[in-house]
């Protein structure tokens, strides 16, 4: 393969100079002109593809995986879309936004929820997103920058159990989906989430009823000074029943 496109430009210049010399060009030279153009275009496309940087390659991989054999079926299912719709609608209708509000989400995953929170807070407040997984943090931060998110998250690549997380810094903390199960310690995870919240602030907790019965949350809260302000169970899809609650610190 030719490393730069000087060769093609030179070929084109030769033919163009022949045409402009008004001597006319032969049929085979006309073919050569068209062939040269096609080769040049192919070359440019290849160079473009080859020059994709490592971050963009990872981003392409991320987009492909969302529709790939492992995640595509769930991501396009009514159960998944219903959960996303209900959760987004819940935060919008249940919590008030005020100027300089600080929100934190624990567990980024695909980052769709964090994207939504950023849009919701746009022009009023900031979002911090915490995740233990370095590659998840990196791709999320890069994707938001590449997609030009208007209110990108401040990403903290940390475990929720780390002791150097900002204490009593947030008005709202959200903990959504399987994040609590993935941490491996229900009580310790909630303790840490509450430690991030200012006095009078809220935790928005959403979890699958299959792995987290509501009673588990109620028992935890009964041993604290916190207060469950609202709790709604969603059982539209019996394969994925879940609940969302708003808890005041
Ligand atoms: C399946 S995702 C769910 C993300 C998102 N809340 C949602 O429902 O779309 C769970 C995330 O929690 C993160 N996670 C697991 N253990 C964690 C910990 N100890 N501290 C912070 N994040 C953790 C994982 O890396 C993963 O990105």
From TrEMBL:
The molecular function GO annotations come to: methyltransferase activity
Q: Quote the Gene3D superfamilies the UniProt record gives.
A: Vaccinia Virus protein VP39
For this UniProt record, give its keywords in alphabetical order, as a comma-separated list.
Answer: Methyltransferase, Transferase
Q: Which GO terms describe its biological process?
A: methylation
Asked if the Swiss-Prot or TrEMBL record annotates the protein with the keyword Nucleus, the reply is no
Q: What is this protein called?
A: 2-polyprenyl-3-methyl-5-hydroxy-6-metoxy-1, 4-benzoquinol methylase
- Organism superkingdom: Bacteria
Q: What is the lineage of its organism?
A: Bacteria, Bacillati, Bacillota, Bacilli, Bacillales
Q: Which organism is it from?
A: Paenibacillus peoriae
Transmembrane spans: none
């Amino acid at each position: 393969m030719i490393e730069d496109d000087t060769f093609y430009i030179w070929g084109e210049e030769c033919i163009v100079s022949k045409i402009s010399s008004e001597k006319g060009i032969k049929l085979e030279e006309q073919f050569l002109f068209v062939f040269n153009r096609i080769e040049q275009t192919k070359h440019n496309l290849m160079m473009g593809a080859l020059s994709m940087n490592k971050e963009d390659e990872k981003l392409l991989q991320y987009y492909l995986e969302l529709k790939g054999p492992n995640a595509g079926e769930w991501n396009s299912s009514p159960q998944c879309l219903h959960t996303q719709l209900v959760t987004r609608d819940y935060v919008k209708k249940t919590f008030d936004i005020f100027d300089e509000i600080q929100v934190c989400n624990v567990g980024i995953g695909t980052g769709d929820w964090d994207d939504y929170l950023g849009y919701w807070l746009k022009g009023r407040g900031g979002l911090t997103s915490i995740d233990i997984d370095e590659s998840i943090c990196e791709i999320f931060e890069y994707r938001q920058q590449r997609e030009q998110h208007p209110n990108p998250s401040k990403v903290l690549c940390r475990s929720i159990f780390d002791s150097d997380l900002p204490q009593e810094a947030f008005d709202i903390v959200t903990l959504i989906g399987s994040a609590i199960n993935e941490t491996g310690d229900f009580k310790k995870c909630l303790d840490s989430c509450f430690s991030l919240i200012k006095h009078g602030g809220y935790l928005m907790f959403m979890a699958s009823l299959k792995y987290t019965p509501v009673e588990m949350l109620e028992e935890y809260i009964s041993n604290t000074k916190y207060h469950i302000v609202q709790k709604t169970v969603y059982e539209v899809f019996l394969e994925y029943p879940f609940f969302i609650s708003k808890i005041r610190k």
